[in-house]
Amino acid sequence: MDFNYNRVLAYLKVAEFKSFSRAAAQLNISTSMVSVHIKELELSLGTTLISRTTRSLAITEAGQRFYDDFIDIKQRIDCSIETLKGESEHVCGVLRVVSPREYGSRFIVPIIAEFSKLYPQLKIVHDVGLPLSSLASGKHDLAICLGNLQDSSFKYRKISEFQSYLIASPEFTEQHSLEDISCLNTLPWITNEKFYKEGKWILRKSRTEQFVIKPTIRYGSNSLTLIHRMALFSLGITALPAWMIKDDIQANKLIRLFPNYELAVLPVNVLYSSCIKLPLKARRFIDYLVAKLGTVHHG
């Protein structure tokens, strides 16, 4: 095989964006040239990487394997190039960060605004979505994750932590008896799978007194915003980060349940690939996150 890195790079971009025109824009070449690169790559490999129609394209099984193998190689090449340029104070290029929408909007965006002033030649792309899947696909350099990590193969660094409160709407509390904490096992719950992995939650009143909740799950979502809305519409009990609901509690739109008991404080971590040396731009941004958020308890 006559290896041509430009062909591989063109394919990786098409696979990432599912678009020839967007890949061309990213590579600063014509769409027709991208098409030529893909065709030549498929000919040299003797297999089809992309299934095309007039209106859409899809990555074939062979194409997905090729992408999974080569995206890591590309990251290593990019890192090596940056290293060869020297560990200078010149932070530039593109830093891609992904985080949950709610945390990113409240905490990460203000930090990006400050950080950008320190490094004006650095372009920062902040996306929202599922951090682990975005990081695994190679689309992002850093992923901000809330809660305990479950068997993560990525490296990570703790940047902060947060407290969650048990809450329900005033209407819900009027419709259900909440006099005894044992009711938490029988009333309907709204849950986020990210924070509910082991089938139970533990409420602690002191070092020696605790109550184990095995909730009756009626509703669920992977979005904190949607869970928040469900709680406001009186669908059930839930646990949400304190920073997200304090205003609602003060306005009596939500009620904190059993405030003498507390859920465990959960970490906020920034994750990155364990396969490559972390670029200077990413290290600087992580250090800045820790400096700004490391002493903050979001409770």
From TrEMBL:
Coiled-coil ranges from the UniProt annotation: none
Keyword Transcription regulation: yes
PROSITE patterns: HTH_LYSR (PS50931)
Tagged with keyword DNA-binding: yes
Record keywords: DNA-binding, Transcription, Transcription regulation
Alphabetical list of InterPro entries matching this protein: LysR-type_TF_proteobact-type (IPR058163), LysR_HTH_N (IPR000847), LysR_subst-bd (IPR005119), WH-like_DNA-bd_sf (IPR036388), WH_DNA-bd_sf (IPR036390)
Domain of life according to the entry: Bacteria
Family annotation (PANTHER family): HTH-TYPE TRANSCRIPTIONAL ACTIVATOR TTDR-RELATED, HTH-TYPE TRANSCRIPTIONAL REGULATOR
Name of this chain's protein: LysR family transcriptional regulator
Organism: Pseudomonas hefeiensis
